[in-house]
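User: I've been going back and forth on whether these two constructs are worth ordering. Before I decide, could you fold them both?

Assistant: Sure. I'll take them in the order you sent them. The first construct and its structure tokens:
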Amino acid sequence: MVRGGRGRGMPGRGGMGRPPFNRPRVMMLRPPFDLILAEPAFPRCKPAPDDTALTQALLKRHAELCPTPAEQAAVLSLVTKLQTVLDNLVVAPGDFAACQLEEVRQVGSYKKGTMMAGKNVADIVVIMKTLPTKEAVEGLSNKVNEEVNKLMRAEGVGNVSSACHERGFTVTAASSAVRVLVTTLHHNLRKLEPEVHLEYKVISSHLAAIRHSRWFEENAHHSSIKVLIRLLRDMCARHSGLEPLTPWMIDLLAHHCIMNNPARQVLPINVAFRRALSLLAGGLFLPGCAGLPDPCEAAHARAHTALDLPAQDHAAATAQTLLRVVARGGHRYVLGLQAFEGGKDISTEITVWDGVVVSPLAPAYHETPEPMDTDDKEEDGAQDGVAA
């Protein structure tokens, strides 16, 4: 008899009737080491180093990345006219019968306040009550172009042009542009046909953009977050290994680096910038890492899963290289304030900093075809790849 009074093989607790190892395996996602979160367990032995030079460089680069007042005014003027026309079509469409509009929402960097200098483009999402056929998008584009031109001529400020694309259409003025992104109500998604309507992925991404803008407005309105977003976007645009990072990933990363700390206080921009590079270098966006949860998607969704495996590997390797350059005092080159001698790309070429050689890391991920399983035996007696 065994403990508990049940005989061996009885279908009770611990018996043979219930296999003890039939539980499904659960994948454990682990976060990378974060010195900010671990600081209570690792108190400093000496004062923090003087980071004044890095802070000044970050603020100087951000000033260069901010759009000028003239650029902001040009985008604001066009967005206001376009918003007025679209709102009128929602409330009183009149004889316009190409489609029916439900709602108009501003999204993207213009809405979030993170627009970059030289990129005078705003985004507006139009939610249709009807299905978003290509003919409906073209009809809406022509109507908007006509009405906006009427407003432009009334003010004597020139004309605009409109061009359709796979996401909707773009209204372009002399020094600014607005992308009108078309989507539909959620219950219409299952009715989409690829040959007739806009693509399902495109429609879904525009609905996600509305959720992203709403979340950002409620949670990431602090100015330090917007400063870090501009700096990270500029750095990603200049280094090929970081280019696959989407604006939404950068927004979540900046918010995490600024706000997520034991004191729940806004971190200085120099600390947050180093933290962002350290997290990327430590594998924040690598497989098996907890990454950053997507607050606008279903539970357990991770933002970095939109990247394929080579992109995840390349981003981590590039961040490790740039972090080593920053540690040797090369932050001006990482930020783009100064070009390296000979036009070298510090993220892809070997550089030397005060006698320390910094070389880019080789890819850790290689796509290799998996061997095919076969039951055929070798005629010479070899089995399972091992000679007999």
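The second construct, handled the same way:
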Amino acid sequence: MVPHRVAMTHGLIKAYGLLDGMDLLRVAPATEEDLKVAHSEEYLDLLRRLTPASYKHDAATREAAERHGLGVVRDRRTGCSTNDNPVIEDLWDYCLRYTGGSLAAARALAGGGYDVAVNWSGGMHHACEGGASGFCYVNDIVVAIRALLRRFGRVLYVDIDAHHGDGVETAFLEESRVMTVSFHQYDGKGFFFPGTGGVDDVGGGASYRALNVPLDAGTGDELYHEMFGPITERVMQVFRPADAVVLQCGADSLAGDRITGLELSVRGHAKCVRLLLSYGVPILLLGGGGYTINHVASCWCYETAVAIGREIPNEIPQHGYQEYYQSQGYRLHYHEAQSGNSNAQTKKMDKVKKRIMAQLDHLSALMATPSIMRQPDEQPARAVDIDDDALVDRSLRGEDPVERLHRRCGELEVTEFLIHLGKTIQPQAKQRSILN
């Protein structure tokens, strides 16, 4: 989940010349007030004041962190200690910045000037109201959907990460204007994180606005889309009008991921994006999981091209991150889809699909019953004006983070600069360790 994935993605998007088809928005960090629509004040207060030093030296702070899923915690499923959400330097700032990206993207859509908005650094779908979970500290998706609801009557959330989008589902169990649909790997035994998202999980009571599509390891493109296409089409028929779509594009569902096994190709993953774009409703694309970073960057770059209607070649262009793609032969599409699944697997998925279609029939009947639905606000708060030059940052269109480092270093080579930086920081680090 390191931010380097996003820098690589941006560098590849730039190398393919895709930035010319987009506006880059200046993004202000989210505020604590923005985060309160998704998280408790107690949890946010802890996040704001938590540092590695306070976690290490203050027992009360450490205990509070553990209660909220931060630092070393006991995994309820396995009984083992984990550190999925470590207490890192500048944690609060990190949370505000990636959430600010998703919030700005949502406001751009709500302002009516854009049809597609993208924040590949977002998509942290596991964070819940009172705590961190699964590498996710703050749930930027919930914050973004709340912003969209200020303008749109109904928002559809679709999750193609390999893991169940539990945090988003839980946040909207009582919200009739939001439907969540998650396609994810599921072992039925609770061992695969987060252990939730069975086919019978349909939301609070019998609302049927939470839809879960559990998939086996090794599903692959063909069987995945035998599920995704028909289910998504029926969802769009039933939950209408879906005025906006949020698609969490977690790339850990790709073949070659370090911890998952759904085995999608880049084209197969992007086919989900193509399908949802075809409905012609405003769409917010967010990142998520993905633990083989060159595969992640390949996928999100290709999906950026899909989102703006561009075709790009398979050969990865020369650019600052070129050598990261050596293991995939410098090709964007490093894995070709395999056809065919076992009869047992196909029959199992047919049963799952029939059950889900029956659930959608129940939802259709419920939505046909007359009811009073709260209308969205007439004007979204702080909507982005596309004519505001202070918000559209054209100056950075052709510059990726590596190039910006070169510029800021002046005439120095990057290697020389980093050596100089190391010599500067080392004495300070020694002094801090002595003071500690």
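Notes on the second construct follow. Strands lie at 71-74, 81-85, 116-119, 155-159, 178-185, 210-215, 244-248, 283-286. The longest strand covers residues 178-185.
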